Amino acid sequence: MPAAFPSLPGVAWPVTKRPITATRMEAHPSGREVRSPLYPAALYEFTLPVEGLTPDGSFPGLGTASLQALLGLYVQCRGTWGTFLFTDPTDGAVTNQALGAGDGATTAFPFVRTLGGLTETVGWVTTVTQVTVAGAAQAGGWSLTAPNVLAFATAPAAGAVIAADFAYAFLCRFVDEGVDFEHLMRGLWQVKSLRFRSTAP
């Protein structure tokens, strides 16, 4: 399982979350255009200003070793190479999310979340607290297959709606090959802009 992005009390505002898509466009002599989406789903780029990091607990509100936690994660990932799990506090859990309907044969259902009128696959499910089939809670007979698939031992009956309560994270990579950790004063560091982007599910 990838490392988790650390809890950083020194994260400041504004935090940005940018959906990223890609489209191929071809123009015809008539003036008409043909457009094709290149990504099966949007990627999300996050930018966090981290105004306070401490290596030794000099500032209790910033934790005891928040500098080491963030710096260690970045070096562990070797910049843009490795991946980690980021839990968005505003977009990280759903309740009674419909995952699909049984057909009597299918045993695997990807975890999804609904965002407005869009339903898309989530990156990495971290915990599942309840699974229901046709409204009945299932005490067993299912398992979580990493990163994001609900697997049943026996296929749900045709027409039975499968739903779940679960938490999820975004599987991400850092955007920049270098990040500036600034030493402001003894015991206090900052990163003005930390950027990372989700990967395709």
Automatic annotation (TrEMBL):
Residues 5-196 form the DUF2460 domain. InterPro entries: DUF2460 (IPR011740). It holds the Pfam family DUF2460. This is DUF2460 domain-containing protein.
